[in-house]
Amino acid sequence: MAGCMRERSLKTSFRTHSCGGLTAGNEGDQVTLAGWVHRKRDHGKLMFVDLRDHYGITQCVFEPESECFSIVERLPSESIIQVQGIVVRRSKETINASIATGEIEVVAQSVVLLAGTSPLPFPINQDLDCAEDLRLTYRFLDLRREKVHSNIILRSEVISYLRRHMIDRGFMEIQTPILTASSPEGARDYIVPSRIHPGKFYALPQAPQQFKQLLMVAGFDKYFQIAPCFRDEDARADRSPGEFYQLDFEMAFASQADVFAAIEPVLHGVFTEFARGRSVSQMPFPQISYSDAMLKYGTDKPDLRNPLIIADVNEAFADSAFQAFDNILKKGGAVRAINVQNASSQPRSFFEKLDSWAKENGMPGLGYIVRESSGAKGPIVKFLTEGRLQQLYSLANTNETDAVFFVADANIDTAAKYAGMLRTQIAKTLNLIAEDRFEFCWITDFPMYEKDHHTGFIQFSHNPFSMPQGGLDALNNSDPLAIKAFQYDVVCNGIELSSGAVRNHDPETLYRAFEIAGYERSSVDERFSGMINAFKFGVPPHGGCAPGIDRIVMLLADEPSIREVIAFPFNQQAEDLMMKAPSSVSEQQLREVHILLKKLTK
Asked: Is the pTM of this model over 0.85?
């Protein structure tokens, strides 16, 4: 198998070597191999079998006069056999440079069938597309396929690298509980009923947040773990429903800069180690404020491989004759522009397809201006004076032969979202995204609070345990929606790898932060008693973050879906089709945990 882990001592009663370990140096050796029949080729006078195990493939040759021939002839693919034979060197013209054992083959002297197989639901020796639900139902077979098998090996190697380098940087690995109390982390909990405490429930941790902070109270200086986390949330391409793993760490006596300095070499190192020829951002990674990210990229997860930048062009349209944009601005909205260099040479169909795409994605349409030496053209040029055009060119940083695209909305956040979507769509259409790079950045200065669009109430926008910039004074004397927090995300190629923060370690500041979000002091004492009580005994300033293991491996493996790098993932409906989970349980089990199910009416 490509990319397999380094072999150790493999000699057992079933084999002397692996199927990936033989070389020309073994010529003449008598060996015993064991593995799966990957592929058979009957050449009449000879039968060739590619024998596969975890480490690779070896070609075995069966001669028609041997007793082995008739046995192997009847075996279907994926049968498991043991082969004893002699290693011979292949002729120059038959060397297979695509496998590690391509210089040799094994002439079989005996064969033993170790395990047969039922008919396969899909081929193992071909990388054919098949329905994902079928693959997940037979995941144990899907994991035999080279690409998926290699992804899981990569995952193991990545975790080993991260663990080794965190220890080398002075972090101590400590495990935190899986059964804990419910906490407002921003997603729904998985809850577990208690047998010995009727009517009460544990929660599976959405993250080890409180426990790792308590470790700082306890005097441990640098903690980490490869932490399982559980969130009852919907699936996405970069998010697995149910459970995920993260490199969780925390540091005592640490500022935001200290956290960045600790984790950047580890992230840079693991991506460099497994880059497979792709380049990696130089350290230190760029730092972009949340407000700048939303303006320039239309998202707080910018893909910096995309060279397009969004510009604020409100000034060029305020009080202009183009009433559609002017009215939006009078309502407190925004107009955003994206300049695309040398796009004036694009055919009319390019602009028409983008306009259709915009309408399909909820926008009223797509305004644009094309600059040419003879002047400007486009559907909105007639509404703008020469002075406004020149102002627009300056704001959007355009040159002749460029094209400028516009999106606008009465809601500033929606305008940013649409502009971000358009930026990505144009870059994909014109192949502007540099696929051979890993581009990192930090997003910093997140708002401490946001307003719930449904209720109008103030709520935490990120991590509730973060330190507000300005501390208690800011909480007491500033507009909550204007307060920034020492919160940060690390992003790679448009994928959020981690959220983190410098923590709110002062009890009174913590009480006040929760009070603004609608939590009474007594509620904080009840819901976070372990942490708030501990903080009253003194806690050092501390901070950390938690890069996602699954997303790191997904990027390194260049896979579009996170399910391709998890050994046994849920499907998009949060089901384990192989183990039939979730499933019903017996009445006895329900009685033991004091639960009575109510039948739902359709």
From this structure: yes
